[in-house]
Amino acid sequence: GGSHQWVEMNGEKIGPYSAVAVHSVVFSPVGGHLAFPAQEDSSWFVVRDGQEGPRWDGIGPLSFSADGRQLAYAALRGEDWYVLRDSTIEGPVDSLLSDSLMFSPGGDRLAYGAWTDSNLRVVVDDRPGRPLLGVASMFFDHAGNLFYVAHDRFGMVFVGNEVVLGRHAAIAWPTVSREGGRWAYAASDGGPWFAVENGEFDPPYPQVRDLAFEPGYGRFAYVAGDDTEEILIVDGRAGRSWKKLVESVFNSEGGHLGYIARTDTMAVVVIDGNAVGVHEEADDLIFNGRGDRYA
């Protein structure tokens, strides 16, 4: 018993408390803000920059906005969960989907998955969406539009701002352009796979993976093939075939595309269509931001 746990930041002691949820201690992405759940007696609360929040029966996930100015977290009272976003309270819900609490990049929107009355829904700005059986992935684009891939009673759906953009037997590799306005995913309706970009279907392949938009320039690339050969497809044009494509990457500012390909005997590093290195093994190709250096 007694107060015997605390958090120490830069040599400064915050606490002590009866307990600290040490695995839930989080720093903001910028700004140096610190938050964590702590317990005194039978009550739990969030300590943010040394200031204690309201008392609850339990505390769930914590999430800072990208600029560090906002904090959201889940809190339990009785059998009901609520989501606190600074001074506002959303809910109640029965429970929250693990690892789903997230701010949009600009911090103006908050989303999470929640169960209520046995229905799972994605909640955005305190507005619950359609009933679902499961959520495979959810993410915001830079413009603050929320996208997610989910299971419902008819199959899988790709949803953007609560509009169903695609429905298939299987959906994987969802992605959106950094600038907004473009989206893509890989899909199968029980047979081959195909890439879908803004509702337009590319030709089918046994496998499709690693879909990506080029930052700033807008090229769209993905890997297609089967267990014996793979090709990189850029804006609908297929490159040469390789036994295996290990990875393909755009540089963060756009303008350059690189990949590592394997033959039966070697690994080939290809930058902008030119082989720049041949090795017995090669992995983890990275660019600097401008793309004029790679490693």
Q: Explain this structure to me?
A:
- By secondary structure, the protein is an all-beta fold.
- The protein has strands spanning 5-9, 12-17, 19-20, 26-27, 34-40, 43-48, 51-52, 58-64, 71-77, 80-85, 88-93, 95-96, 102-103, 110-116, 119-124, 127-128, 134-140, 146-152, 155-160, 163-168, 170-176, 183-188, 193-197, 200-201, 207-213, 220-225, 230-234, 237-238, 244-250, 257-262, 267-271, 274-279.
- Strands 3, 4, 5, 6 and 7 form a five-stranded antiparallel sheet that branches. Strands 12, 13, 14, 15 and 16 form a five-stranded antiparallel sheet that branches. Strands 8-9-10-11 form a four-stranded antiparallel sheet, with no helix packed on it.
- The protein is globular and about 65 Å long.
- The protein starts with a strand and ends in a 16-residue tail after the last strand.
Nutshell version of this structure?
The protein is mostly beta strands. Helices cover 0% and strands 56% of the residues. The N and C termini lie far apart (54 Å).
Mean of the pLDDT scores?
92
* Structural class by helix and strand composition: mainly beta
Intertermini distance: 54 Å
By DSSP, the count of extended strands is 32
Rounded to the nearest angstrom, the radius of gyration is 23 Å
Instruction: Give the overall silhouette.
Output: globular
Uncertain runs with pLDDT below 50, 5 residues or more?
Answer: none
Helix percentage: under 10%
Largest sheet: 5 strands, antiparallel
Number of helices: 0
Beta-strand percentage range: over 45%
